[in-house]
Amino acid sequence: MSDDDDTYEIPLQDQRVFGAGIKRRRVHFVPSSSTAPSIATSTTPAKSVSDLYLKLVLPGDSKERAGENEGFQTAAADSGVSSTSQGEAAVESQVCEICNLPISDLQDTKQIDLLSKRPSSKSRHEASLAHQVCLEHSHPPSHLDRDRKGLAYLSSYGWDPDSRLGLGASGQGIQFPIKTKPKDDKMGIGVKLPKPGEIKKKEKIKKMDAKQCQKLHVKDRKKTAKLREMFYRNEEVDRYLGRG
Q1: Side-chain half-sphere CA neighbours of 103 within 13 A
Q2: In what residue span(s) does the G-patch domain sit (predicted)?
Q3: What is the predicted pLDDT for the residue at 108?
Q4: How far is it, in rounded angstroms, from Cα 73 to Cα 78?
């Protein structure tokens, strides 16, 4: 017998799952809502602990300190109410003088939230587009040379080059000179050149025979005779000859 006959293997369908037959203890999970009574925990504030310690150490000063604490609390409450009312009134009545728009959540202009690094509402309002449009922007000075004689002459008559107005004491002239355009062609002034797409093709020269040339020659002679008669015609001579 071979070694394969000595070893017996269980068929695959009869093999048991790994861990089968091992007894395990049941796990009791804690439910989500516990029916056990909740234990109320009392928290003692630090102020009461300090007062208790002062009563034990300094029994005479405890009453005076209690009176001072009550007065301080009432004063702080009154000041808090008055400050909140004043702050609300200031917020309601705060209107920008430049753009006439309300500013909400008024804060100090230099106050910045350290956590979010965001500026205050007033600085955000000053950076808004509506406020920036209403501002009077400053313009750079004129680029004209101050040593020019023409500028000195105009300035002597009251013209300010930095006023951004036209020529003249009252600024009624043009503000900028007329822009020149280069003229690269040799055409006359006012002649409009046709566009590249509008250029027509040259017509072919038609050749004529002898008969057509003779007719054209006779037509030209009649035309020249008529023009000569119109130029050199005299009404008195025609009236004398009876032509008129």
Answers
A1: 25
A2: 146-194
A3: 45
A4: 9
Q: What span, in angstroms and rounded, lies between the C-alpha atoms of 87 and 108?
A: 12
Find where tokens 């590249």 sit.
Answer: 196
Nearest to 175 by CA among 186, 165, 185: 165
**Tens digits of per-residue pLDDT, 99-137?**
888 886 544 444 444 444 555 677 788 888 888 888 887
Q: Which helix (H) or strand (E) holds 217?
A: helix 210-231
Tokens of 153: 């002459």
- pLDDT mean over 18-34: 74
* Cβ neighbours for 130, distance < 8 A, ≥ 6 positions apart: 99, 101
Most confident of 134-138, 166-170, 211-215: 211-215
**Is there a contact between 105 and 123 (Cβ–Cβ < 8 Å)?**
no
6 pLDDT tier (thresholds 50, 70, 90) = low
Is 102 in contact with 94 (CB distance < 8 Å)? Answer: yes
Residue 65 burial (CB < 10 Å; 0-12/13-18/19+)?
middle
